[in-house]
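Extended Data, panel c. Modelled sequence:
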Amino acid sequence: MKKNIIFVVNPISGDLDKSDLIQAVQEFATTNNFDLEVYETTGKTDQKAIQSLYNQLQPERIIVAGGDGTIKMVAEAVEQYDVIIGILPAGSANGLSVDLNLPTTIEENLKIAFLSRYIEMDMICINGKKSIHLSDIGLNADLVKNYEQSNLRGIWGYALQAYNTLVDSSEPFVATITANKETIEHTARMIVIANSKKYGTGVTINPNGAMNDGRFELVILKSLDLLLLGKIITGNMPIDSDDIVIISTDKATIKTNYPVNFQIDGEYCGAQTSLDIHILHKQMKIAVP
């Protein structure tokens, strides 16, 4: 009896042509005796289409080629079903695959996605939207907005936008945070809501994060100058600094004294004054090395 697999591919993610990737996946499936159904996302009614394919084929795994946005869309589509998600990193933001320590070659990733064990991973719900990875309010969301509008890609594009964003940044905001039954106030440049450790650029922002512990971390950066930014980008996150406060919790609210730019998993979500956050424990099964 052949096992069914749905392969969801975002044809335009990361500006890469996917035909070679699709061929490699098809060959791997044939060799390992899987029946493969390829679904290319359109950005229109993908969730419904994936749900009806799932009901038709009852696959044991759904393989996703794309970035964090595509993975999250698939996870939301199948959240009611018992299915394992395998990842082939192929987006512009691959933060989750960096965090899962997925290898760099397609051959190794195919083995993991189709055949490897899985963990049950948490997601975070923020104002009703789901985050699988890292969201933040403040400077990095400014940066994501600027980066989306700029032409320069990669780490240098990111570093340049980071510099410009810092130079142009507005006043620090005052955040009133309620978590673990206490309310505190911090003046901050940026607050990260982290389910995991690293940004897609490989930058570690939350050294103690675990994706399946039923908790998330609020990483509060009270000041952010070029020196601190440089340390974070080069991987020397100074967690014992007075400028950084980390709160670990399973639910929280953040209120700000003026609307502050906000992003979820690398997608800009407008300026917000209030965030209501809670953990969704063991929300999705994901194949890991």
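The helical segments are 19-31, 46-57, 68-77, 95-99, 106-115, 139-149, 154-168, 226-233. This feature is highlighted in the accompanying rendering.
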